[in-house]
Specification:
352 residues, alpha/beta, Dihydrodipicolinate Reductase, domain 2, nine-stranded mixed sheet, six-stranded parallel sheet, 11 helices, 31% helix, globular
Amino acid sequence: MKRVGIVGCGAIARQRHANEYRLRPDVEIAGFYDLSPQRADEMARKFGGRAYQTMEEMFADADLDAVSICAANAYHADCTIKALNAGKHVLCEKPMATTLEDCEAMLAAAKKNGKRLFIGQNQRLAPAHVQAKGILERGELGRVISFQSTFGHKGPEMWSVDKSADTWFFKKDLAAFGSMADLGIHKIDLMCYLIGDKVTSVYSKLATLEKKFLDGRPIEVDDNSVEILTFSKGTMGTVTTSWTHYGEECNATTLYCEKGILRLYSNPKYTLEITYADGRYVPCELDAMQTNDDVQQASSGVIDVFIEGIQTGAATVLDAENIIDSMRVVFACLESAAAGQEWDIPEAVSLG
């Protein structure tokens, strides 16, 4: 039996982490910590365990095996490093941290303490993406020539725990990033994972087109973005993100390959579609992509990978070592947007 604690009691902790831990008979939720004691109390009443008065009290619990970090982006590195130094395994929500130096410090802390660090890049586990990875690795469609991938929804204020335009997601000091890193990290990481090659340059454009605080001021981070990624073997494509998709959520990817086209989560019924160069069409009905509008969400698989990775010691696709290069691309996108020009990433390595 693994005993776990959850730091941060916002929407992601409520809808994903706590719910998914509760589904496992080999996990006990020891308790919660949040800057708002009331939220921690509410979570403990709903999911079991207790409300810790401080984060340090939680990490000092000798019977605690692992911790989920679900706090605001600005706190990811500090919380993670303290938990690792206290001898806990850690699952940290994305984006991993707000600077590359912090990402590297998190990895160093895991290595120093002999503990596992996982990052919640759940799109690597989506069934259509898993199937696509196998298809591409087997060479069934040849090399990926180009791609387009989009993640857009109504905005975090529509689903965050307080349902308010005063959400921390809109504040530079707490979020550090806007839609590009909140949503774009999913698609940037997915492209690196599926293509299995290194990104060598990016061109990024960030914009705040519509979102405002309650007092009418524009939010402090981007609500839309467009990124052009170029890989070392010549593959090129776009990642677009938006917090202003006020209709249905879009979470679609298309890969244009030498031997055909692979579409993922473009069709609500057939979440993986292959159109071969000779015209053959193969639709696959696998699953539905989780959305933030879902009241009862199916398991993302992240908690299963985390717990089973701890239990077996086996490497997983969510190990932080497999994610940090995607964060390098995110930081390069920020540099590109600030400079208004293409930005090279000489230090990027293969994520295959």
